[in-house]
Amino acid sequence: MDNGTPLEQARRAYRIDLNRPLRPSSDTHTKLLHDFHPDYASNSRVPLKVGINRNTPCHPQLAELLQSESPTNAAMLSNADQLETDVLVIGAGGAGCAAALLAAEHGANVLIATKLRMGDSNTIMAEGGIQASVEPGDTPQAHFEETLRAGHDCGNRQLVAQMVQDGPEVIQWLMQQGMQFDRNQQGDLATRRAGGTSADRVLHYRDYTGLEMMRVLREAVFQHPRIKSCDYSPAVELLSNSDGHCSGALLYAIETERHIAIRANAVILASGGLGRMHLNGFPTSNHVGATGDGLVLAYRLGAKLQGLDSFQYHPTGLAWPHTLAGTLITEGIRGGGAQLVNSAGERFIDELAPRDVVSAAIIRECREGRGIRLASGRQGVWLDTPVLAQQHAGMLAAQFPKFIALCEKAGIDPDRSPLLICPTLHYQNGGVVINTATETTVSGLYCAGEVSGGIHGKNRIMGNALLEIISFGRRAGIAAAARPRPAHHPLTLNHLQSFHQAIKSSHITNAITGPLLFPHYARFSRKLA
Amino acid sequence: MSNTATTKRDIEITVNGTRLSVLPSHSLIQALWKAGHPAFKRASCLEGVCGSCRIMVKQRGQATVEMALACQSEVKPGMQVLFPQHLERLAPSAQARCYSLQSSIPPLQQLREHFPEVAHCRHCHGCTVACPKGIDVEKGVTLANEGALSAAGELFINCVMCDLCTTSCPENIAPNYVALFARRTTAAHQPLPGNLATRLQTLQRGELKIKY
Lengths: 529, 212
Known about the structure:
The complex is a heterodimer. Chain A has 2 domains: 5-36 and 313-425, Alpha-Beta Complex (Flavocytochrome C3, Chain A, domain 1); 74-310 and 429-481, 3-Layer(bba) Sandwich (FAD/NAD(P)-binding domain). In chain A, helix 5 (94-105) links the parallel strand 4 (81-90) and strand 5 (110-113). By secondary structure, chain A is of the alpha/beta class. The longest helix of chain A is centred in the first third of the chain and has 20 residues, at 157-176. Chain A has helices spanning 7-13, 29-36, 60-66, 74-79, 94-105, 140-150, 157-176, 209-223, 293-301, 331-335, 355-367, 385-391, 395-399, 401-410, 464-481, 494-505; strands at residues 5-6, 46-47, 57-58, 81-90, 110-113, 130-131, 191-193, 200-203, 227-230, 235-240, 246-253, 258-269, 305-306, 311-318, 339-341, 372-373, 379-384, 419-428, 431-433, 445-447, 452-453. By secondary structure, chain B is of the alpha+beta class. Chain B contains 8 helices and 5 strands, in the order ββαβββααααααα. Chain B has a 5-stranded mixed beta sheet with strand order 2-1-5-3-4, covered by helices on one side. In chain B, a hairpin with a 7-residue loop joins strand 3 (54-58) and strand 4 (66-69). In chain B, helix 4 crosses helix 7 (175-189). The model of chain B is unreliable at 1-6 (pLDDT under 50). Classes of the chains: A alpha/beta, B alpha+beta. At the A-B interface, helix 6, helix 7, helix 8 and helix 14 of A face helix 1, helix 7 and helix 8 of B.
């Protein structure tokens, strides 16, 4: 695309304007989504050919991964080092750590394994905050209804109801673990407004909410005498017993290049999302390990998935400079008063409309020639922070230190200059089907956090991800610790053989093997011996 | 030498003793990826908040070694980089830091029990110099030693737990863990916020059930 205004020209033309009107538009939210959101494009879904979700629509890149072959074989399992635990937690972000802590508190011996360092996750990068209805004018009912509405009424009502009712208690638990929250002068929890909601419901600690949460939970996990941790050891396959139940997992220790077979009474998958698959060529706000591993492992074992064609493109990823492309700029900045402005100097969308609508509107501006163009051809629009700075002097520095650090690195003074932004792949809305006790359709396998599906429907609101990981993470820990011990629990890869058979008979040709573990540009290779 | 792919745009750097040609104007992580060097796995967030990609750097013409995060460091000609292995083994053991936030023992007494080295600070500034986030780490240690735990913790808002200060201390003080103790103690001992306390009571009475 060579329409749009070149960056330098747009920069010279930019003026601070506190009275910028919102351009009237006849496009309804529905029309914006259908015409411009990547999920609604005609090439954005194909039916799956194998597995329990056969004929379910799925994003083509994810379908390729879910129907990929595994490089793992029985010899690797028999040559692997062996460990045994009551509960195995895969993933050490917020959901995994909360699950490990609660399982251990309920008497289980826990092993928590992670691909990266303990705590490395999308949680640690979360900026906006965590939702919980605590303000006098707000209710869990409003939180419930707005979560469902933002998700286009595709969320599971039981799961959402349970999560929003957990909210206040989740906050209390986090405080007991030693997490700090911003407070107002009366000592009440400070709150901010999320897009698509009617009440101030997002609790936060500066724009470091995830970092503060993860520092605390990681330390609590290290301190617990019944939790052992295993870092730089991604799960490369789940293991099944003769009944097809989940009986453990095969890990790959990156440092020693050896496989480790873990026998577990219950497995909690908390492995997060897939932003690093760069769906539709989008940049991502996700950490390096977000490659959808959990989905492919669970699917091969027969766990039902849902919402495989629904992803969140966060409206405000940094577009320039290119070395920082995709880095998230929190919605809190728009909540504070920053505006979205096109190359003609117009506001074109309510900045606090639901995220999917705002992203679609940004894409519309770019496609219709009102974007700002980079030399690479990529386009974006302005996030007008100077208007915020003029109206609330000192707010950016006081409330958004992570944002300020990003601006320093980018060489941008947000008090004077707007930032070029474009949508960035942020979140997997769907995932593994769970019930209120986090059980999947496979006995012995539990799921919590971004890898699970059903809460956010087709669009998530700010702050519900952090609530989800703690609400369901804790419940997963309790449920997994209580699972009755099976009499006979061998470790097999039998499920993998039947899955491979199905792939073969469906004549699927595979370009990739799964799980990916790392994005292709990280050039990771697993030793297959 | 096998520098077959060197172009005019490339710059030379040394990583863990190996000379490499990489593209300029990139972070060290991006440059290593683009140059096709798979050696380094310890990167995660790429935003400077996870603290995993810690490095030691010596720039050309400089006499001193600096601590930094690789995702936040731009490649410069002639820079020498060391990705230290096993840094986490230098952190205090879980056993050493197994204080309890619910304990009746006063926080300051717990600090003395679990982090006795705090009293031995030599004020050498090693920790402060090592911090890639610009935290006045030594001041935090001093404040903690004086019993000002809340103020000590407040200095560490930006801390990413990269452990570089802990690695640098000649007295085996673990400043980032001391600060985390201070922050967690402060949080756990604060009175429950009024709006949260009211809402919790309402929910405990069985009110505000969801209708659907």
